[in-house]
Amino acid sequence: MFYIIVVSAYVLMLLGISVYKSRSVKSEEDFMVAGRSVPVYMLVATLVCTWIGSGSLFGTAGLTFRTGISELWFSAGAWIGILVVYMIAARVRRIAQYTLTDLLETRYNQVAKVLGTVTIIIAYMVIAGYQFKGGGRFISILSEGSISPETGMIIAAAMIVGFTVLAGMVSIVSIDIFNGSIMLLAMVVTLPFAVAAHGGVDAVISTIQQTQPTYLSIMGGHDFFWVVGIALPTFLLLMSESSMYQKFSSADNARNARRAVMGMFVGVVVVETLMMLIALVGFAIYSDDARFFLADGSVNRAMAEEIILRIGFEQLPTMIGALLLAAGAAIVISTGNTFLMVTSTNVTRDIFQAFFFKKTTAQQVVWIQRACIVGIGLLAYLMMSQFETILEMALISYTMIGASLAPALLAAFFWKRVTRIAGVCSIASGMLTVITITVLNSVFRDSETTILGFSIPMNTDYIAIPAVVVSVSTLVIVSLVTPRPEESDWKPFMNES
After folding, report:
1. What kind and span of H or E run contains 399?
2. pLDDT tens per residue, range 145-170
3. Distance CA 94, CA 496 (A)
4. Distance CA 145, CA 92 (A)
5. What DSSP string describes 174-201?
6. Residue 463 falls within a domain, yes or no?
7. What is the CATH number of the domain that holds 237?
């Protein structure tokens, strides 16, 4: 009961802030990019909270439980991506568009914008949806099973949609300063208590060495292709993460946009490393717990994804456990808010405003977007039955965004030779490749087959490799066989000043 009281109090505090901030929303710019007035410290917090979501709390934890410290390759893909983003953050803020798809339209054409919008809508609904799924598991654990994960998912979905509808980006950046702080504090405090729960560092290492010694190896018994396959989705997602580009546009100036990216780098590295270590300690604690393993001895992937929350609920002193569970609520809410916000922004601007409601007032745009948030939230909820684990959903959605948009986006900022038609073809080919593999995986889930040399269903740890090969090859080949672009096409993206 104490855990429920603490988590409920924290969520109600966030709700109060959102209600208060909703009164300041006067225009679409306030709702979409917080009036372009976000200071650097708030931007750092909201960028960290954007990335540290259920994909980290559940997906990263589950991957660590079945691979050990080699999970860091998954996280490191994002870290490298953040450093690349640092190089272009000021340019993005200077161009000052609302969304990533605005950038695609500026460099390529409206077809690229529409394809980018479709890609983002599909992938971000999956990402928003697994926040609901993670929230459902969280609520089930918190209620000691009295609320089922399915019912918990409905509650989580309603809560996240409600937060987002209230005040949009103003609300998100306002509550993320609290969410970011509690995430970091909880992970720092949890690790030593989790280690102590198993008898200390030596006991943790000894248990892992006796049960799964490869868990202490940086390769974890895997080969180079696994490393590439697991790191590519997070790297490419960072390159084309629409919510971050939208938040760059929320910065009060271009210099602070870059400073915020470096702050994000430090915050994400620290939090994800701590999460990995906590999950690794969790493996030692639960290495002989039948709940975490199947009859054949393999890891129960769905259960393994709950390892951090299980530690908080079952292994830590009450006050520390309550802090960790409040952080879990912060993680689910903050990321769910962001991805609903970005998806609805794209639908509102790139579809409704572009094709149906060309003459609308600022207040009408805000209400259209609020309606989109509710509709997208409902669709995201309905999609959840198609996936078994949060990590599977994360890898597919990350690859959908990364393979489709990252090559064209990076080329816009770093390759003068890329042509408009090449960008369009690259986006389309990446998106279709991921959709095709996902559909084939679903069709052949219970019976393995081989198509074009690939084993189907394909292990989602490797799904990024064929998608990126197709997208990048298309981008390069089509660019080289079509006429060079005009200087006016690429110059705004190359100029640092």
Report:
1. helix 390-414
2. 788 888 888 888 888 887 777 655 55
3. 9
4. 46
5. HHHHHHHHHHHHHHHHHHHHHHHHTTSH
6. no
7. 1.20.1730.10
Task: Quote the tokens at residue 27.
Answer: 């225009």
Whether residue 339 is contained in a domain is answered as yes
* Total domains, the chain: 1
> Please, are residues 250 and 342 in contact by the beta-carbon 8 Å criterion?
no
Structure tokens at 448: 């393995």
Cα distances from 192 to residues 108, 273, 289, in angstroms, run 51, 14, 21
Alpha carbon of residue 446 to chain centroid: 29
Is residue 129 a contact partner of residue 383, using CB atoms and an 8 Å limit? yes
Would you call 21 helix, strand, or coil by DSSP?
helix
Does residue 364 lie within any of the structural domains?
yes
Dist CA 39 CA 74 (whole Å): 30
Say what angle helices 110-142 and 420-443 make with each other, to 10 degrees: 40
Element at 456 (helix H, strand E): strand 454-456
- Matching residue, tokens 């394909």: 458
Residue 394 pLDDT level (bands cut at 50, 70, 90)? confident
Supply the pTM of this predicted model.
0.73
Task: Dump pLDDT digits (tens) for 183-210.
Answer: 778 888 889 999 998 889 999 999 999 8
The b-or-e profile of 37-64 (16+ CB within 10 A means b, else e) is: ebebebbbbbbbbbbbbbbbbbbbbbbb
The first and second tokens of residue 54, run together, are 């259920």
**If you count DSSP H runs as helices and E runs as strands, how many of each does the chain have, helices first?**
21, 2
Q: With CA atoms as reference, report the closest residue to 164 among 369, 364, 6.
A: 369
* Residue 362 lies in domain: 2-397
Q: Is the pLDDT of residue 91 over 70?
A: no
DSSP states of 123-158 as a string?
Answer: HHHHHHHHHHHHHHHHHHHHTTTSS-HHHHHHHHHH
Nearest to 398 by CA among 339, 474, 472: 339
Residue 21 placed within a domain: yes
Task: Report how far residue 391's alpha carbon sits from residue 62's, in angstroms, rounded to the nearest whole number.
Answer: 8
Which pLDDT band, with edges at 50, 70 and 90, does 395 fall under? Answer: confident
Per-residue CA distances from 440 to 69, 352, 433, 455 (Å): 31, 32, 11, 10
* CA–CA gap between residue 316 and residue 309 (Å, rounded): 10
**Cβ burial 345-372 (10 Å sphere, 16+ → b, else e):** bbbbbbbbbeeeeeebeeeebbebbbeb
User: Among 225, 289, 214, 233, which residue's Cα sits nearest to residue 64?
Assistant: 214
Structure tokens at 128: 């928003």
Peptide bond before residue 466 is cis, with ω within 30 degrees of 0: no
